Amino acid sequence: MKYDVVIIGAGPAGLSAAVYARRAGLSVAVLEQNIYGGQIVNTPEVENYPGTGKTTGVELAMALYNQAAETGADILLEGVTEVKLTQDPKVVITTGGEYEAGAVIIANGAKRRHLGCKGEEEFSGRGVSYCATCDGAFFRGKEVSIVGGGNTALEDALFLANNCSKVTLIHRRDQFRGSKILADAVVVKENIEILYDSTVEEVCGGSVVESIRVRNKLSGEEKLLPVSALFVAVGLSPENSLFEGQVELSEAGYIVAGEDCCTSCSGVFVAGDTRTKELRQIVTAAADGAVAATAAARWMDTH
Ligand SMILES: Cc1cc2nc3c(=O)[nH]c(=O)nc-3n(C[C@H](O)[C@H](O)[C@H](O)COP(=O)(O)OP(=O)(O)OC[C@H]3O[C@@H](n4cnc5c(N)ncnc54)[C@H](O)[C@@H]3O)c2cc1C
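ok -> structure tokens follow
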């Protein structure tokens, strides 16, 4: 099968790209290995996507899917297993077949790293969150905790401190990995308490999170911290080994691209969480999808 554009991933970035590519008159296949909608299907509430008001992740995923399907894009449940991007036409091999493409848009997202402690999965979406920007506002005026030691954890701790009555920042080492300027700001913030050399052992509660059990690694002492939420900020993991050697990847494994969503490989564009960027959200993923598809359409005009 041959398409003008093949899009890898049917999250907000991929589905938005499909709408823009179809409206530019291109034939489009979107290939998805798991479930339409991407990461947001795991989100009970979304409040910050412009225009939708309060909605659930599943509702938003369905709306994005329906809109893309109505444009006539072929949205197929097939995982991509191999790509040949440096040739023209490009070839995308999936669990279901082989596709030729004029241009390829990579929109395969990234995964939030988990802690792996007891109760984490059970309370996911019920007080355990992987995104302070997304969920911090749900805990306004409450006591919360955040775990991590990099820039994201430090930024999120400051963000949460402006919304919540108290923030306990838990870090497994005795020094932060994040920038000094952020660490200094966190240390002097009145309503942030820092527990160094500590790990979260268990998330406890009834229907929602009520406390976490924290262990000091040096003394072995454990304490129960009463909190309404645990924010996990221990990093994202992009899964871009498929593209290694064909498009430039950053040290952390993201596909290198600026706001124009162009990769180092001619005719290959990237959108959403999988690319190097500052803010990984639905709105920025959807915006990338629009930019990447428009760039792909322009590229098709001249090749
Ligand atoms: C728990 C949680 C809550 C969140 N809440 C919010 C919120 O309230 N507001 C907000 O703005 N953001 C929120 N986010 C972040 C938001 O979901 C992401 O920024 C957004 O989904 C990124 O979109 P994307 O399309 O780039 O990637 P994704 O949503 O990750 O979609 C990528 C898709 O590509 C597919 N894929 C990957 N590899 C392959 C392959 N080899 N072949 C085929 N398909 C592939 C994946 O299965 C996935 O469906 C939340 C994230 C999480 C985890």
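Residues 282-301 form the longest helix (20 residues).
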